[in-house]
Amino acid sequence: MARPKRNLIATAQETSTPPAELGESQRIAKVIKATGNNLYSVEFPSQETGLVELPARFRSTIWIKRGGYVLVDTSALQNRENKLIGEILNIVRDEKQWRKESYWPKEFVKKSSYPEENDDEDSTIGKLPPTESDDDA
């Protein structure tokens, strides 16, 4: 049986806005890969990696892509004896809005999809091939 549409809409609205502030055990992490069974390998701003679990309310509702960001609660699974270091509390969907918050890590800088302009004379990209008169000179 499918979930009611109101549950899907409520979950989507819940993840659309960032919280006002983060708790002590909450951290933003970058998703490296999905390891299966609702487990994700993430990287924290301190270059520390670990496994986090996706709660049931997000399963089959919101998809997490590689390179996306999530809000992780590291104290949620401390009493369990396993490899998991936390649970996903929220999924960053509107990254632009989240980046404006004061708690966004400086290590997660937005990288331009275009390479930076360099004044290298060695580059031949976008230039015509040399003519024969240029070779004689």
Structure explained in plain terms:
The protein has 137 residues and is of the alpha+beta class. Helices cover 16% and strands 25% of the residues. It has three helices and five strands. The protein has a five-stranded mixed beta barrel with strand order 1-2-3-5-4. A hairpin with a 5-residue loop joins strand 2 and strand 3. The protein is elongated and about 75 Å long. The mean pLDDT is 83.
Task: Briefly characterize the structure.
The chain is an alpha+beta fold and 137 residues long. The protein has three helices and five strands. A five-stranded mixed β-barrel has the order 1-2-3-5-4.
Mean residue pLDDT: 83
The low-confidence parts are: none
Helix percentage range: 10-25%
How many extended strands? 5
Largest sheet: 5 strands, mixed, barrel
Helical segment count: 3
Range of strand content: 15-25%
Q: Rg, please?
A: 22 Å
Taken from the alpha-carbon principal axes, the silhouette is elongated
Structural class: alpha+beta
Order of H and E elements: HEEEEEHH
Biggest sheet strand order reads 1-2-3-5-4
Termini Cα gap = 79 Å
Give me the secondary-structure topology:
Elements: H1 5-16, E1 26-36, E2 39-43, E3 49-53, E4 69-73, E5 84-91, H2 95-99, H3 132-136
List keywords for this structure.
single chain; five-stranded mixed beta barrel; elongated
